[in-house]
Amino acid sequence: MKVFVTGGAGFIGSHVVRVLLNEGHEVTVFDNLSTGYQKLVDNRATFIKGDLADQDRVEKHLSGHDAVIHMAGFIEVGESVKFPVKFAENNIVNSVKLLEAMRSAGVKKIIFSSSACVYGVPKKLPITEDDPIGIQQNPYGACKVAIENFLMVYRQLYNFDTIILRYFNPYGPGELHQPETHAIPNFVKATLASKQIPLYWQGEQIRDFIYVEDLASAHVKVLEIAGFEVLNIGTETGVKVADLIEMIFKIVGKKVPIEDLGERPGDIPANFASAGKIKKRLGWTPQTTLEEGLGKTIKFFKKELQTD
């Protein structure tokens, strides 16, 4: 297939591009580099620096593609609270512009990078795809819900093949967000630099950490699907954050102090996925243990930070 990847210079997007290429697909990366890095883009892909706000340009470059993997968007939750209009314009309006460009270019297959945050506070664990959408705590989550709804509309009106992937907690090499708000890269970098790890809830929260290459492989698998599907992408295993930190200490070979930040409003005590649907439908399962994935992540940051 010829696949158009928005946000393909980002953390997850660059891994998806690499897996697509390794599987023999032809890939075009479309990214404005506002948060991505061209150095992360595999040189086998065609790279176009562009913004989804420019609908005519998107349509021009979409011509001849078979599918879109849509991963472009702002992700920093705190920033979404400060600048909700900026988030809505970039994440929602530009996504609709992409859909319109696809319709004009005759490309009617899209895989969307959504999030487990759409479930809100889970009523039960593990979370399944038929669990209700929850009340959102921030504009970031509200944007994900809004885009999912637009995708449903384009399925109904224009018969798009639409696959929504709800990620749990991705981690791995190549995560270079500025600012970085995700737990694992911050924990790893603090440990390598012998600095305090800031920790909420004394690390009692439970999360489902999915290694980025396993997550990327799911995007390639779902290219086979037609129709409309919502799929969780997780490991089906909940891990306590405090135990995650101890695992990082063990792999690095040293401990650093913990800064107890107490409670944080809006945090969900626990969430982890049921990924039985994608396993049954496509045979996809994560291949990387948490210890293996953390080892690869630590190796990446050692090189990036130039530590021993």
Kindly describe this structure:
- The longest helix has 22 residues, at 84-105.
- With 308 residues, the chain is α/β, with parallel strands linked by helices.
- The protein contains ten helices and 13 strands.
- It folds into two domains: 2-170 and 210-233, Rossmann fold (3-Layer(aba) Sandwich), CATH 3.40.50; 173-207 and 237-305, UDP-galactose 4-epimerase, domain 1 (Alpha-Beta Complex).
- The protein has helices at 11-22, 55-62, 77-82, 84-105, 139-158, 183-192, 212-221, 241-252, 276-282, 290-305, and strands at residues 2-6, 26-31, 46-49, 67-70, 109-115, 161-167, 169-171, 197-199, 206-207, 209-211, 228-233, 239-240, 258-260.
- The protein is 40% helix and 18% strand.
- The strands form four sheets. The chain has a seven-stranded parallel beta sheet with strand order 3-2-1-4-5-6-11, sandwiched between helices. A two-stranded parallel sheet has the order 7-10. Strands 8-13 form a two-stranded parallel ribbon.
**Number of structural domains:** 2
| Poorly predicted tracts of residues | none
| Average predicted confidence as pLDDT | 93
Number of helices: 10
- Can you summarize the main beta sheet? 7 strands, parallel
Q: Distance N terminus to C terminus?
A: 42 Å
What fold name goes in the CATH topology slot of the largest domain?
A: Rossmann fold
The global form is: globular
Class computed from helices, strands and strand pairing:
alpha/beta
What is the radius of gyration? 19 Å
How would you name the oligomeric state of the polypeptide chains in this document? single chain
Instruction: Give the % helix.
Output: 25-40%
Output the CATH homologous superfamily of the largest domain: NAD(P)-binding Rossmann-like Domain
- Which range does the strand content fall in? 15-25%
- Strand tally is 13
Order of helices and strands: EHEEHEHHEHEEHEEEHEEHEHH
Order of the strands making up the biggest sheet: 3-2-1-4-5-6-11
